[in-house]
Amino acid sequence: MQLEFFPSPSLTRYLAKLFVVRILAVLVMLVLVLQTLDLLSESGKILGVPGNGEAQLWQYVSLRIPQLIARFLPYSVLLATIITLATLNQNSEVVAMKAAGLSAHQVLAPLLLTAAVISVISFAFNERVVTRSTATLKAWTAAEFRPIPPDAKVRPNVYLPDGPHILAAGQVSGTGKLTRMDNVTWYRRDGAGMVLEQIRAPHATYANPGWRLDKPVSFDVAGTRRVELAPTVVAQGITPAQVAISKVDPDAQNVIELYHSIQALKAQGRRTSELEGKWWHKFSGPLAALLMPLLGAVAAFGLARSGQLLIRAIIGMALGFAYFVIDNAALAMGNFGGYPPLIAAWAPFLLFALVGETVLVRTEE
Fold first, then answer.
1. Are residues 172 and 312 in the same domain?
2. What residue ranges are annotated as transmembrane (predicted)?
């Protein structure tokens, strides 16, 4: 019996190579199929905008593919684990490795090492690529696939309260005193929340204080009158700093940006439990790839001729998909305040790590 955690270097490279090839094959297949279906559903909206053509379709694909990769990489690792281990089992390679004195953990060690590397790569890919593509795609979608300002900080659908009144913007770009709002609507309300007047403007800029509406058009609700106004300043109680933290999208910010946003919201006395859960999940989420070989390991052990290989593969898939269901449910509970953010992000990972280890030990016995 070997005392080392890993088998021989040759066997480690062999198993890791099999695993990586199957992960890439499954991931490419899933991304191609899902991207094709998604493009079919969105291409009509994109091409329906005057001036859009093939270049905009490719732009949409380039922004959507990183999201699909980030979302389905753990599924690809799970399916690749089951395919790899079921194939090794069916070819009696697992029996040969155990006859050579390898334990179940040593058989899985190359897969776990490969999954750990994939988790690190996934984290870096999410932080450097996915957050940026998500921010750009959401802003472009909010603009109904029309041209958007070349600003990485564009945010769609921002609502800002100023006492009983509300300032709404279709999208916000820029920072500080250079903040610019597009598709702006100012709702002047009474103390009971009833809208007295609605002012619409294509643009708004910071007037220090307040926000200057360009080419505003007023609609008097009581008198049902529509009047074109001169440039008007509204919402004098709203500052660019408030605009900056008015809408924080955790999917469009990396861990550093999201941390600063959370601290700014806390300084304003705002509730941040949902954002804190998302912040912790940026670390626990990529580790799902590390968990998949452990959950799918049930497909590796047991005699193939017993006729239970398919059942074992189904059990491995069920454990993997159960993790994703519990993970999403825990995040939802954290958003409602049912769980602390730290527990909501990490409890499913630790729970299924124990479940996978228990199943592996019982299977080996």
1. no
2. 14-34, 68-87, 107-125, 309-326, 338-356
